Every structure is written in structure tokens, then in C-alpha cells.
Amino acid sequence: MNPFPANLVPPSRKLAAGLVGLSALWVLAIWTWPFWFPVSPEPVKALLTLVLNPVCHRDPAFSIQFSGVALMVCTRCTGIYTGFFTGAVAGFFFPAHTKIRLAVAVSFVALIVDFLLNLTGLKPVSDLVRLMTGIFFGFFTGFWLISALIKKEHHVSGY
């Protein structure tokens, strides 16, 4: 028996949709930053700086740039957020395979290796590699999280 009437959306599906929506807004803000940041009021710039500094080093030398203005987060973080959004959308529509945790773990290891190679200077890492390892990790993490929320809904509703 389904505990949710046909006209009521289960809370886990609402949460999943909300996370996908917030992720979409965040990715849109990241990729459009160079176009709206220069004309933003100072309080907006200060608030965004306060929010972003704890989660990303934001070094322009390691950031994608448009018209001489760097994106608001580094290339790796841009990849993580972009990948998370695309994975979240996919997780909303497709069930997760049982090996999704392995994919998250492998992508995390790739991200850490990329980071350590860059940090130690053993091998220079290009922006493309940073972006791709970020996308790889973000995609599987977003897919895992959203599909887990949707799967929870199926267990609760008896499907």
C-alpha cells in the first residue's frame, strides 16, 4: 500500500528536486560569474567571498577565465559542482547501479591523486585534468545522492 496519496509528492522526491534546483542555480552562478560579478554591488561581492573562501582557494591562476575575469571557484571545484548537477539530474531519472559507491570511491581517489600531484609538484596537472577529475567525482556523487533519495521513496512507498 502506498502511504502517499496520488496527488502528494513524497518528501524525499521534493528534497531531491530541491537539491537539483539549487545545484542548477549554483552552477549557473559559477559559469556566469565573469559577466555579472563586475557589475555587482559591493555587499553582494563581500557575501559571496565570505561564503566561498572556506570551500575553495579561488586562486585565479587555477581558474577558468572569461574576458579576463576568473570564475568564482577554481577549475577543480567548477568541475565538481558542474558534475554534481549533471549527476543529480541523471540520478533523478535513472536508478543507481549497485556499483555506484565504487564509482564514487574511484572518482574520489582520482581527485586526490590529481590534487596531490599538483600540490607536490611531481607532475604538472593541466586545467583540463582538474576540470575532468572534478566532473568525474561530482557526477557520481550527485548521482548517488539523488538516486539514494529517490530509492528511499520507493522503499517507503512499496515499489
Number of helices: 5
How much strand content do the residues show? Answer: under 5%
Structural class: mainly alpha
Order of adjacent strands in the largest pleated sheet: 1-2
Report how far apart the termini are.
Answer: 9 Å
What does the average pLDDT come to? Answer: 85
What can be said about the biggest beta sheet?
Answer: 2 strands, antiparallel
Radius of gyration: 18 Å
Succession of helices and strands: HHEEHHH
* Envelope shape: flat
Ranges where pLDDT stays below 50 over 5 or more residues in a row are: 154-159
Q: Share of helix among residues?
A: 55-70%
* Total domain modules: 1
Counting DSSP E segments of at least 2 residues, the number of strands comes to 2
Describe the protein's architecture and organization.
The protein has one domain (11-157). Strands 1-2 form a two-stranded antiparallel ribbon. Strand 1 (65-66) and strand 2 form a beta hairpin. It has helices spanning 11-36, 42-52, 75-93, 100-120, 127-157, and strands at 65-66, 69-70. The protein is mainly alpha-helical and 159 residues long. It is built from five helices and two strands. The longest helix has 31 residues, at 127-157.
